[in-house]
Amino acid sequence: MSMRGSCMETPLKIQRQVMEVNFFGHVLITKLLLDSIPDSGAIVVIGSLQGKVAIPYRSAYSASKHAIQAFFDSLRTEDRPNLQILTISAGYINTGFGSRALNTDGRPMGVEDENQTNGLSVEYAASTIVKALINRETELLMAPFKLRIAVGLRYFAPNFLFWMLHKRGQKDPHQSKKDH
């Protein structure tokens, strides 16, 4: 579940709804099934690049993806070191996901995001994930190079990244009504 809207204009109800689905849903399912998964098995977590770099007007979505990354990083280091946990930090994938994102009123946007439409194909994403599972990887950064750069900037030049994201946010159609 995603959302579009400023941090301040997105009601807490929407923030909680996104966290319920994107974070607590994963946690609950994992807790219920973990004992049934053999050490030779795997858990695949579909996260987002936004779990590593938050972007403007996606606060609840980014927060939920940061949280899911942290939960599975912790689980990975606890008592099942042989169990493969593959967290996927995906960029945009052309799934129609953007049109179902909630607005600040809690209704689906109904319009596809251009970045989503131009994103990776579902087939490419699936084959890339299967290869990562076969190679027993734990992290998959599945995004074009220019988006991967943002992850590096987050750690090595955060002020520059935040300035760039601010500039991006000024062009975002979901910009705060107060800013217009």
Question: Please, could you describe this protein's structure?
Answer:
- This protein is mainly α.
- The protein is 46% helix and 9% strand.
- It has a three-stranded parallel sheet, with helices on both faces.
- Helix 1 packs parallel to helix 2 (59-76) and helix 5 (145-156) crosses helix 6 (158-170).
- The longest helix is centred in the N-terminal third of the chain and has 22 residues, at 12-33.
User: What oligomeric assembly is this protein in?
Assistant: single chain
Tell me, rounded to a whole number, the average pLDDT: 93
CATH superfamily: NAD(P)-binding Rossmann-like Domain
Strand content: 5-15%
Tell me, what's the shape? globular
- Give the helix proportion (percent range): 40-55%
- Stated plainly, the CATH topology is called Rossmann fold
| Largest sheet features | 3 strands, parallel
The CATH architecture designation is 3-Layer(aba) Sandwich
Number of strands: 3
Rg from Cα: 17 Å
Note poorly predicted spans.
none
Q: Which CATH top level class fits?
A: Alpha Beta
